[in-house]
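Cast an eye over this sequence plus C-alpha cells and explain the fold to me:
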Amino acid sequence: MANYIKRRLPAAAGSIAAELRMAEAEVRFYREVAPEIGVRVPECYRAELDDEGSLLELEDLSTWRQGADPGAAATLLRSMHDRWVDRAHVRWPWLRPIGAGDELVARLYDDTWPKLAARSDLSAPVREFGARLVGKVLQVEARVLEAGPLTLVHGDASAPNLRTAPDGEIALLDWEDVSAAPGVIDLTWHLVSSVPPAQWAEALAAYGPSDGLRTALPSSMVQGYLSMADWPEGSEEAAAFNERLAAGVAML
C-alpha cells in the first residue's frame, strides 16, 4: 500500500495557519515528539519544511475506521495528558502556548456571528449563548490557562482525526494544532466536535477527574460555533453541532 503524502504550500500571510505556524508545528511534531509520545500515531518516513512549504510522508491508515468510541478516545487522551503533564513544554519549548492566535480567532468569531445568528437552525439557548460570546472571546480564551496544568495536547481531537483499527487500537492523526495547554481542552473539543450528547457521560467517566472542564468548555464552544458556520443551514452536520452546543450550554 502506498504511503500517505501530505503537502502544504506556505500559508497566506495574516492567516490563522500562518500565525500559528501550523505546518512547522506538525513537521516538528513528527521529527521530535512522535518517537516518544506514548500513544499511537502514524509512522513518519519523511518530514520536510522549506520555503516551498511542508511535506510529510506518513503511514496510510485510511483502511482504519474514522472516529473512535467516545470512552476509548477519552481514555487515550487521558493517558497522553498524564504522561506529559508539567513536562511537555519543558521538553519541547517550541510547542504553541496558550494565547497564540487568540486575537485572530476573536475577530473571526465577531465577524462570523451576525450571519450565524440569522440562521434558522440555531436553537434559542445556543443563539443566546453565542450572542454573549461576542466581544468576549479573548477573555474566554485567556481562562483556559486556569483549567489545569500544562501538558501535551493534540489540539483538534475530533472524529476525523481519530482512526480505529479492526483490533480496536486508536491512532491520532493531523498534529498541526499540537500545543502545550491543560489537557481538558482536548476533552471539551472532542465532546463539542464529535460526541453525541447521550454519550458525553461515558466520555467524561472514561477521562476521569476533569476539574477544569467548565473553564475550558467555552473556548471549545467558540470553535464549535465557527465550525457550525462552515456547514449549510439545515444540514445534518449543522444540526449535530447545534445539538452538541446545546449540551455545552446546559453543562455551563
